[in-house]
Amino acid sequence: MNTQHLETVHQWYPAAKTTEDTVNRLLDVIEENLGLKPNQLMHADSMCCDDVNAIQYPPRAYEMLGPFHMGGLNGFPFAGITGMNAFAHHVPEDGAVIIFYAPHIGITKDGSLGEISRIGQTGHSPCCGAAKGALGKLVAGQIVEGNITSLDFQMNTIEQIFLHHKDRILDAENQIFEATEVMYEAIDDRIEVLVKQTNYPCKYVILVGAVFINGDRDMGSFCQYKKFDCIDLESNERKSLMKEYYG
After folding, report:
1. pTM value surpassing 0.90
2. Which residues pair with 231 in a beta bridge?
3. Ramachandran area for residue 225 (φ above 0: left; ψ -120 to 50: alpha; else beta)
4. What is the dihedral of CA 39, 16, 183, 240, to 10 degrees?
């Protein structure tokens, strides 16, 4: 069913694949280039805790070990260095760590961004709700520089990220699209920092950065990769596998 809606998704994310195809291709590329089977991969993800991501989580991903969930609201890796170190020590020694990270965004059948029709509901609701909420406060000028509280730490963190890119987001043709791009870059930067501060007792670290795209309840989900890097821990060499993935 969801392949019928790829044309709609491609209006915004021209390289997106269905989530099922994404995971199939990911595992094929890893096996072809590294010789590793799914049961040799310790999988961590940094995705939003929104229930729609659990509903639309690709079943084949469970062939890997894990997942260890690092993400909170909108996919930022709130588990931090403690979470990264924790799951790093669960990896098979002859295998690899694979870290998938992505903010998510909704898209309706008619191509509207930032919302979806959820199971059991007749109308649309925000997706990602946290991103939409932070964007609403940014537009209204209600975000205070440096305001991060223990009562709403994750949401306040997203608000600060958006505030630091205020002009870029507000001047964009589509603000929620641009806010999601900003969020991806913030997640990517943080993941890179965490990886550098973690020791992995395995052969490879594989970093997969993307935007996860939730469709209406009968559309399924989609994914557009932005990064697919493999770090050889023995030589410390990094290679992009994006050409192999799209090839």
Report:
1. yes
2. 205, 238
3. beta
4. 60
CB 28 within 8 Å of CB 245: no
End-to-end Cα separation, the chain, in angstroms = 24
Examine the pLDDT at 132 and tell me if it is beyond 60: yes
- Asked if residues 127 and 104 have their Cβ atoms less than 8 Å apart, the reply is yes
Of 240, 200, 212, 176, give the one whose Cα is nearest residue 101: 212
Evaluate if residue 9 carries a pLDDT over 90. Answer: yes
Q: How far does Cα 241 stand from its chain's mean position? A: 17
Strands 65-69 and 237-240 come out as unpaired
C-alpha span between 13 and 27 (Å, rounded): 22
For the chain, state the CA radius of gyration.
Answer: 18
Please enumerate in sequence order all residues whose Cβ is within 8 A of that of 43, keeping only pairs 6 or more positions apart, or say none.
61, 64, 65, 66, 67, 68, 98, 100
Kindly provide the b/e burial profile for residues 100-135, where b requires at least 16 CB atoms within 10 angstroms of the residue's own CB.
bbbbbbbbbeeeebbbbbbeeeeeeebbbbbbbbbb
CB atoms within 10 A of CB 233: 15
**CA–CA distance, 113 with 124 (Å, rounded to integer):** 11
For 236, counting Cβ atoms within 10 Å of its Cβ (0-12 exposed, 13-18 middle, 19+ buried), the class is: exposed
Average pLDDT for 33-57: 89
